[in-house]
Amino acid sequence: MSGILVYALHHDGAFNKNSLGAVSEGARLASELGTECHALVLGEAAGLPDELCASLGRFGATKVFRVEGPEGLAQPVVDAMATVIGDGGHEYALFGGGLLGFEIGAGLSARLDAGVCMEVTNVRVDDGRLVAERPILQDSQVSDVHYASGVGVIIGRLNAFEARESGDADAAVEDVAVEFAPHSLRATMVTRGEQRGADVNIEDADILVAGGRGLGKAEGFEQLEALAGALGGAVAATRAVVDAGWFSYAAQIGQTGKTVSPKLYLAAGISGAIQHKVGMQGSENIVAINKDANAPIFEFADLGIVGDLNKIVPRLTEAVKARKGG
Ligand SMILES: Cc1cc2nc3c(=O)[nH]c(=O)nc-3n(C[C@H](O)[C@H](O)[C@H](O)COP(=O)(O)OP(=O)(O)OC[C@H]3O[C@@H](n4cnc5c(N)ncnc54)[C@H](O)[C@@H]3O)c2cc1C
Fold first, then answer.
1. Is the distance from CB of 20 to CB of 98 less than 8 angstroms?
2. Which residue from 136, 278, 291 has its CB within 8 A of the most atoms of ligand 1, so it is best to mutate?
3. 91 contacts 2 by C-beta, under 8 angstroms
4. Is the CB of residue 19 below 6 angstroms from any atom belonging to ligand 1?
5. Is the shortest distance between the CB of 305 and ligand 1 below 6 Å?
6. For every residue of the chain, which 3-state class applies, written as one string?
7. Torsions phi, psi for 22 (to 5 deg)
8. Which atom of ligand 1 is nearest to the CA of 237?
9. Ligand 1 binding pocket mutation candidate from 208, 239, 248, 286 (most atoms within 8 A of CB)
10. Considering the entire predicted model, what is its pTM?
11. In order along the chain (326 residues), what is the average pLDDT of each group of 10 residues?
12. Ligand 1 within 6 A of CB of 258
């Protein structure tokens, strides 16, 4: 049998939007290929009731493989996907992206000796095979990636695929027992939390208050959220702080993040590296706060303030509130 196998991440009784987008995309492609889209879910049995698994049918999955195992970690999912693909003969594995999707997709590609393409923004059917489209050269061009391997691994850019309900049919649910490799069980989930900024679409904001490593710690973003709130804007981030886990990747600006062009871009504690600059240089007004007068960001800021952001940002917030009468 051929087909497309999609990994669907769930937490607290719900699948995330990114996973539902991947299932919808898998279903669209499967129908064009004349095959089926299946989903794989993995977690503690109690957290994966029949109704939840079957609900992926509304997004186009015809079958859901339910695997009992530790939720939210990459290696057990690699084991499970490899087992199901080995038994079912799926031709493609599709992931919605995000850090977990990247890690699982890369691991699966190594395990199956499969071709892999990440940061995919569109997939099309060409001559009965899938072609992944991936933006390159700072998103100025799109490259076509064809798969020569027996199994092709497609990893989307985060939220690139739209979640679409295509009907109200339930998916069939099949339990699969997977033997996890010893190394797959060595990592354990210690804690889970919501990342700040994950639900904000920074591309739509007229005013962006962006923070960098100069904030010193994740809590440093609280003062930026207060300033953005006073200004009626949104908060964005550099890759350095996203990589450090201080802020959500959804709000990252730059070469490997989003490109924005707000009316006002206020950068606090950001050095202005070229990879960041390419994502925000189209902003109408750039204001930078940095304690280093030689920081590169001052070379392209319209207004530069040399000083400690911890002193300047709260005073700016107060001034904006006072001006707005609040
Ligand atoms: C292939 C590749 C892709 C990349 N893609 C991206 C991308 O998409 N987006 C991106 O942002 N980066 C990207 N980077 C990383 C980029 O090169 C920089 O490392 C990153 O942008 C730096 O982030 P930063 O400005 O937060 O940190 P830093 O460069 O460490 O700058 C921190 C700044 O804060 C200032 N500061 C410190 N304390 C204070 C204070 N109290 N008050 C005021 N200022 C203070 C410092 O003077 C400094 O200028 C990429 C790199 C590579 C190699």
1. no
2. 291
3. yes
4. no
5. no
6. CCCEEEECCEECCEECHHHHHHHHHHHHHHHHHCCCEEEEEEECHHHCCHHHHHHHHHHCCCEEEEEECCCCCHHHHHHHHHHHHHHHCCCEEEECCHHHHHHHHHHHHHHHCCEEEEEECEEEEECCEEEEEEEECCCCEEEEEECCCCCEEEEECCCCCCCCCCCCCCCEEEEECCCCCHHHHCCCCCCCCCCCCCCCCHHHCCEEEEECHHHCCHHHHHHHHHHHHHHCCEEEECHHHHHCCCCCHHHEECCCCECCCCCEEEEECCCCCHHHHHHHCCCCEEEEEECCCCCHHHHCCCEEEECCHHHHHHHHHHHHHHHCCC
7. -65, -40
8. 11
9. 239
10. 0.65
11. 90 87 96 97 92 97 96 94 96 90 95 95 94 83 94 88 90 97 93 67 89 97 95 94 88 89 96 94 95 97 98 97 83
12. no
Determine contact, residues 279/260, Cβ cutoff 8 Å: yes
- Nearest CA to 87 out of 160, 5, 206 is that of 5
Q: Give the pLDDT score at 203.
A: 82
Q: What is the pLDDT of residues 55-104, one digit of tens each?
A: 999 999 999 999 999 988 999 999 999 999 999 999 999 998 777 899 99
Is any atom of ligand 1 closer than 6 Å to the C-beta of 269?
Answer: yes
Nearest protein Cα to ligand 1, atom 25: 270
Contact between 115 and 147 under an 8 Å Cβ cutoff? The reply is yes
The percent of residues in the chain predicted with pLDDT above 70, rounded, is 96
Closest CA to 118 of 155, 74, 77: 155
- Ligand 1 atom 29: residue of nearest CA: 271
Q: What is the pLDDT of residue 325?
A: 77
pLDDT for 162:
85
CA-proximal residue: ligand 1, atom 7 (nearest): 254
- The predicted pLDDT at position 199 comes to 63
Query: How far apart are the CA of 239 and the centre of ligand 1, in A?
Result: 7
